[in-house]
Every structure is written in C-alpha cells, then in structure tokens.
Specification:
This protein has a single domain, classed as Rossmann fold (3-Layer(aba) Sandwich), CATH 3.40.50.720. Helix content is 54%, strand content 16%. It is built from 4 helices and 3 strands. It has a 3-stranded parallel β-sheet with strand order 1-2-3, covered by helices on one side. It is globular, with a radius of gyration of 14 Å. The N and C termini lie far apart (36 Å).
C-alpha cells in the first residue's frame, strides 16, 4: 500500500500535465524509459525511431497502458527528416514543444 501512496504523491508533486516533450530513440533503452516516465507524469510525449516496426510495437503497449505517446519514423541524423518531424510535432501540439 505504501508504494501506491508514494506513486500518487509523486504524480501530484511532479505532474507534467500540459507539457509536451520530444524523445528521440524512444523505443529502446534509456529513451524508452524516458518516454514512459514522462508519460506517466502526464506529459504528452512524441517519440521518434528509425525502426517503424519497433515504434508500432511500443505505441501499442503505451496505448494499452493509457499513456499519451505519439510517434513517427525519423532518422535524426538526416536534416530533412528532422525538419519533417518538427513540422509534424508542431502540427500535433499546436506549436508547443
């Protein structure tokens, strides 16, 4: 029971409700953990990955968990792909990132 109470208190204290975030490489490792942490703190999260299959798999899991996460396929080493994803994010979040 203490864990549940700690989680509730943490969310009240650390709520990111109304904030929007971008996490690159959010389907694996540290990026994946950051996506989930931000979404659990009520931020709207957008993530990108070079691998569409991994992005789709993670998106399904996040949806089941009730997390607000959107995603797109993007190789952030490509200037044109970075520009494309930033336009997409601007559209999704009304220019707020």
């Amino acid at each position: 029971m203490a864990e549940a109470a700690g989680t509730i208190g943490r969310h009240n204290r650390w709520s990111l409700e109304g904030m929007t975030t971008l996490v690159t490489g959010g389907t694996k490792g540290i990026g994946h953990a950051v996506v989930e942490e931000l979404a659990e703190l009520e931020a709207s999260v957008h993530t990108c990955s070079r691998n569409e299959a991994e992005l789709n798999e993670c998106s399904c899991k996040w949806k089941i968990k009730g997390l607000k996460v959107t995603g797109s396929v993007c190789d952030v080493s490509s200037p044109s792909e970075r520009e494309k994803v930033m336009k997409q994010i601007s559209s999704l979040f009304d220019g707020k990132l």
